[in-house]
Amino acid sequence: MTPTIAILLIITFLLSTVGLLLLIWSIANNQFSYGQSAARTIFSPGEEGHSEDPALADKPDFTGDTSAQASAIKARWTADQSSRTAVLTWLSSAVFWLILGSFFGLVTSLKMHLPEFLVSSEFLTFGRVRPVHLNAVTYGWASMAGIGVALFLIPRLFKTALAGGKYAVSGAFIWNIGLVLGLVAITLGYSDGEEWLEFPWQIDILFVFGGALCAIPLLLTAANRQVEHLYVTSWYLMAALVWFPILFLIANLPFTFPGASGATVNWWFAHNVLGLWVTPIGIGIAYYMIPKILGRPIISYQLSLIGFWSLALFYSQVGIHHLVGGPIPTWLVTLSIVHSVMMSIPVITVAINHHGTMMGNFKRLKDSPTLRFVWIGALMYTASSLQGSMEALRSINVITHFTHYTVAHAHLGMYAFLSFILFGAVYFIMPRLTNWEWPWRRLISLHFWLVSIGILIYFVSLTVGGWLQGTALLDAEMPFMDIVRMTLPALEGRTIGGALMTLGHIVFAFHFVALLMRRGAGNEQPTLFRPAVKEPTQ
Amino acid sequence: MKRALAIMVGAALILLLATLTLVVMPYLQMSAEQIPPDLKPYTEKQQRGRQLYIANGCVYCHSQQPRDPSFAPGDRDRGWGRPSVPGDYAYDQPHLLGTMRTGPDLFNVGARLPSIDWQLLHLYNPRTVHEDSIMPSYPFLFRHVEEAAEGDKVVYPREPYAPESGQIVATEDALALAEYMLALDHTYPAPTLPKSDEPKE
Ligand code: HEM
Ligand code: HEM
């Protein structure tokens, strides 16, 4: 035991040294002394105090009081237009994969309580439909929508036109080809066999390549940037775009890691996809959207930077909490549990900033579709992460590990947090890119209520069912078949919730296509939740 | 640009460190682990069955990793076997530890249910064995024939799961998968398991 403890100490020491060096570097480079003024870099001159929400305006858009201000707004419009083709390509693909992934999710869910549903074809057996769902929603919907929103934000954050947008467009094509090939491979039975890494590694090369093509416009645009300070959103986006290709490459190195050490690499990767890829994208978007819609900067810029570096340090080490109690060295599990608990530091700093900025502005949730989706998403980030930190503790994990409770947590994170923020961002972005407003206000409401009620039912039924299942599994007096019968109501509840979510996605996709086809009233008035507020706009 | 690069390099560096702790070091430690002398490599047929286990996603409902009884006593008391150690997985490529127990742990299913007829029947339709099972049937691993030929492996599902007429015959795939199930037997002693029963933390 002594050598491993020594190793553990060395690691912790190394880590904190690196953390310290980074902090010193940040201070030396005046990252901190910018203070609150840095939080204002996302506003055009004179814009602070004015809300920007293309899907909301009880006040009309701010167009500048002086000619200097007006030209800054005009420059932003030009920046938005520069990313148009690239963003539309990524977002439209994402919406397609969302619909496909939802249907596969629904079929998976039905199969879990109707085991004779669609069993005759090997291509639709549970064990193939489920990974198709996971990969379609993770790499299709969440990743592609995330990259699309990032491509939209990059020119805005750097206040310059997107350079090299065509690389991002070809990246989207390659990414889509990778998805089609990968999902077909799973359906035909050529899975690589590890969760989150089911796509055959030969196909995964396409994703590394497609992702790298998106780094080119990022670097080119960063080189042209017109702002002195990098706003915190750009930190998250840049880091995520660096992390993903490295992760994907190492995890796919074929035939390197056998047996139990293969499991550690598997979960190191899977959690990093969540923690170092989709999470920074989601948080970064919220860091932009919330202040922008409220027209007020985030309350503490220093905190946001601490949150960023502590996320990088702690999140990268938590992967092994997926193997608590598994056949791997104890120090490794302990290391990940400690970091899982430490994750509350970045989570709380982010929460203070997101929710603190909202303080006193909650009434805005009534009209602004973007704010409603994004803020609820941010709230669910706080909730799912605090839940996750608890779930990593040995005493809780021993109950929840192998149960549906994990699946409920997974959807609280991937859906109520990430997908909600992405929905909000899409509602913000599309009118800006197409210069056309959302055609039907009620459809946004309908989408919101369907998916909110859906995920609520989904989460509650699986959390309760999973917990009961977990306690029963520990008690060998309870026959296994009794546990199977006991979980059936939870699984049926999930199907109801999931069906509502899928319906919501159909509404969303329909509205998205209608906007692209320029249905509705055009761009006279931005779309609101409440018709009453529409009247006074002359 | 300098600052943008610095952030990206910093981010990459942190990830590199995490890779060192969570990928390289465990690999070094675990690959030095002793392989239990009684663990047999998979035969070609068992390996083929394992491939079918992967292709049909049994891993999404079944784990293969009993936990320590001092941590989770239910695992031992349900007869799922002693806690597994890294050496037990020496021939597993890729690993199939699993994270769900919608169905029972299968690390020792070969010792628990050693009859190939049971395994085939259960695969053909789990409800022939447990009325309320939610495990899917795998009819595509079987052929429906009028009359089984010489050497065919016939399964005999009970009413009402039996076909109206003719017989159900296992394909090579079904046989391979069942063979793999029987190969999941890790009841031999593990040399690296701590001898004492006292709880470790
Ligand atoms: C501090 C933050 C978090 C911690 C400490 C944490 C911890 C955990 C733990 C302990 C598990 C259960 C592993 C198991 O027993 O099998 C888990 C599963 C999961 N978490 Fe989190 N979580 C956090 C935040 C998030 C967020 C923000 C998301 C979504 C973006 C997320 C998505 C997931 C998913 C998808 C799974 C299921 C993985 C699988 O089994 O395939 N988590 N998390
Ligand atoms: C449209 C409604 C949806 C339904 C009905 C649904 C249903 C399901 C089902 C049945 C599973 C398999 C659970 C198991 O094997 O026990 C699953 C897993 C999963 N789904 Fe969904 N899902 C939906 C939407 C989404 C979305 C939009 C996302 C992400 C953006 C998502 C992310 C995941 C993840 C990460 C897992 C793996 C969880 C784990 O391994 O613990 N799902 N889903």
Order of helices and strands of chain A: HHHHHHHHHHHHHHHHH
Task: Tally the helices of chain A.
Answer: 17
Figure out the total of helices of chain B. Answer: 6
Q: pLDDT under 50 segments of chain B (min length 5)?
A: 195-201
What bound compounds does this protein have?
Answer: protoporphyrin IX containing FE
Number of domains of chain B: 1
Backbone shape of chain A? globular
The tally of strands of chain B reads 3
**What general form of chain B does the structure show?**
elongated
* CA distance, first residue to last residue of chain B: 48 Å
In helices, the fraction of residues of chain B equals: 25-40%
Fraction of helical residues of chain A: over 70%
Q: Strands of the biggest beta sheet of chain B: in what spatial order?
A: 1-3-2
Low-confidence stretches of chain A: 530-538
Order of helices and strands of chain B: HHHHHEEEH
Number of folding domains of chain A?
A: 2
How is the secondary structure organized here?
The complex is a heterodimer of chains A (538) and B (201).
Chain A: H1 2-28, H2 35-39, H3 67-82, H4 84-113, H5 126-158, H6 165-188, H7 201-223, H8 232-252, H9 259-294, H10 301-315, H11 330-342, H12 344-358, H13 369-391, H14 394-400, H15 404-434, H16 441-474, H17 480-516
Chain B: H1 2-31, H2 44-55, H3 73-77, H4 109-112, H5 116-124, E1 142-145, E2 154-155, E3 167-170, H6 172-183
Antiparallel strand pairs in B: 1-3, 2-3
Could you walk me through the main structural features you see in this protein, from its secondary elements to its overall organization?
The complex is a heterodimer of chains A (538) and B (201). In chain A, 72% of the residues lie in helices and 0% in strands. Chain A is an all-alpha fold. Chain A is globular, with a radius of gyration of 23 Å. By secondary structure, chain B is mainly α. Chain B has a single domain (44-191), classed as Cytochrome Bc1 Complex, Chain D, domain 2 (Orthogonal Bundle), CATH 1.10.760. In chain B, strands 1-3-2 form a 3-stranded antiparallel beta sheet. At the A-B interface, helix 1, helix 4, helix 5, helix 8 and helix 9 of A face helix 1 and helix 3 of B. Bound molecules: protoporphyrin IX containing FE (2 copies).
